[in-house]
Structure formats: C-alpha cells, structure tokens
Amino acid sequence: MIFKFFDAELERAFAKSIVAEYDRLRRSAALREERPEKVRQKLAKLSQRIDAYCNEHKPNLYKKAKLIQALQDGLGKKGAAQEEIDAFLNETIVRPLRGVG
Q: Taking a C-beta distance cutoff of 8 angstroms, is the pair 88, 36 a contact?
C-alpha cells in the first residue's frame, strides 16, 4: 500500500486544471482591465476550489507537496512572475496550512 501513498496523479491533474483556470482569469482580467478587487474575488473562488479538493480528497503531505510543485511549475510555464506565483500559493495553500487567518 505504500505505492498508493506516493501516487500523486490526481493532484497533478487537479493542479493542471487550476493552472489553466488561473491563466484564463489572468488573461481575461488584463484584457478587460478589471479592478484589483474583482480579480481578488475571482481568485478567491479558485482558492475555494482548492480548499474543497483538499477537504474531499484529504491528500497526505507528499501529495500536498506535489500539488504545490505542480502549481508552481504550471504557473511558471504560463508566464506568471515568481512574485505572483508566490503570492497566489501563499494565499491559497501555505497560509491555510499554517492556520493563519
């Protein structure tokens, strides 16, 4: 059963869908010149999807790390700046893991 512990295919597929949605939101916001508040609201919905996924699938520490890595790599490949990636991951994953409100 140890192999099941390390199987992170589901997390990689989920990360791929989040990256695609994030990229779509970025491009849409830039094209429409949306206000920062509106963009934050859309990103909050994306964050809720991540929370719902983690609550439903309850990934172990290894799978969470793979999820974060896949998000970082995917967002980087889509052209997001490292500061933007760090801010998104901190807001959606790292900060809730620490329990900071």
A: no
pLDDT given at position 101: 44
Rounded to whole angstroms, the Cα distance separating 70 from 84 reads 15
- 19 Cβ neighbours under 8 A, 6+ residues apart: 70, 71, 74, 75, 77, 78
CB atoms closer than 10 angstroms to residue 53 = 18
Mention every residue, 6+ apart, whose C-beta is less than 8 A from residue 68.
89, 93, 94
The mean pLDDT value for 6-24 works out to 95
Tens digits of per-residue pLDDT, 38-54?
888 988 899 899 989 98
